[in-house]
Amino acid sequence: xxxxxxxxxxxxxxxxxxxxxxxxxxxxASYLTSNKWTQGEIGLAxxxxxxxxxxxxxxAGALIDALRNKKAAGAMAIVAIAVCAxxxxxxPTLLSxxxxxxxxGFASCxxxxxxxxxxxALVGRHALGNRLGRNARFASIGSAVAAALMGAFGEYSSARxxxxxxxxxxxxxxxxxxxxEHTGPVTQGGAGAGAGExxxxxxxxxxxxxxxxLVFAACIALFHLSNAxxxxxxxxxxxxxxxxxxxxxxxACIIVPQMxxxxxxxxxxxxxxxxxRRPLLLFGFAALxxxxxxxxxxxxxxxxVPVQAFDGISAAVFGVMLPLIAAxxxxxxxxxxxxxxxxxxxxxxxxxxxxxxxxxxxxxxxxTVSFMGLAAAGALAVLxxxxxxxETREQAxxxxxxxxxxxxxx
Length: 410
Prior knowledge:
Number of helices: 16
Largest sheet: none
Structural class: mainly alpha
Shape: globular
Oligomer: single chain
């Protein structure tokens, strides 16, 4: 059983990692613009980072699976992100920025499965839903705090100061990681296995043939096809129809979902263990078409802010369910983090298609039609969950701990 100290340290690790990752969000574009970069150059740099992140999802997951010491893997990724932030702050040249984006893309892809694996190691299979809910809560709070703090640094100091701050915030993240105690061998198995009966390691081809993996990957792609472009389109609407308070409204559209995620995520984790995954997925995915239709029908830019609460609902459910379902289908088969990487890759593909398709439709037919198309993609995601996705939660057999012994070090 993990100590209270380790669990609290994991809370703070998620908080500070969200702080750090926030520094690589929209602040990069603002910083590069202040250094006389053209929009084409900025787009190239950000695209390189996005492409690296997409291509790194599966290799990074496989690497985390192969490494026994997940804490060391997480520490290396955090140090790499610190170096990237320092590189951006010290030298905003094309070569430096491209190098920072590439290394940040791979390091970020290592962090997500590493944190999931550490969480798995600390609490075991049956408490994982609760733990992932807490992870999401502290990450969302960290993102909101960091956005406000970095915005203030950028406004009252300089755009460069954001990246010095980002590098500095990796220090408390590393301290929090170091406070997580080694738990020894951890059980990763399915809920129904008997104690001391390790499950046979599954081949990657068997994992890719698993109906649950394939259907949920398709659901993820549709989710992001519907979700990724919504806020960008809404921000364009705000900018077009408002002359004052534009940045405040856009900031509120970002902060409101984070508040909802912080409030809702622990409940999602507990409910997923109590009711199963499918009811929660239907609840979270149903928020997508509702949000898109409201965006299409809302006339006042100020009303976009409360509509963004639906983004918090879907984000809370998705953020908890992705690593939880990966544990259901691959946790005892030696490919938990690889499975997270596969799901991350499909998310990236869906998000990329979303921005391309939504932008194309908006340019030719208007934002309202584009929102309707995003709503249709969201409705398809809900339909696919309802019609084709099996329940992945396994019931523990009476008299067994429900855990099998697959060693994993933290």
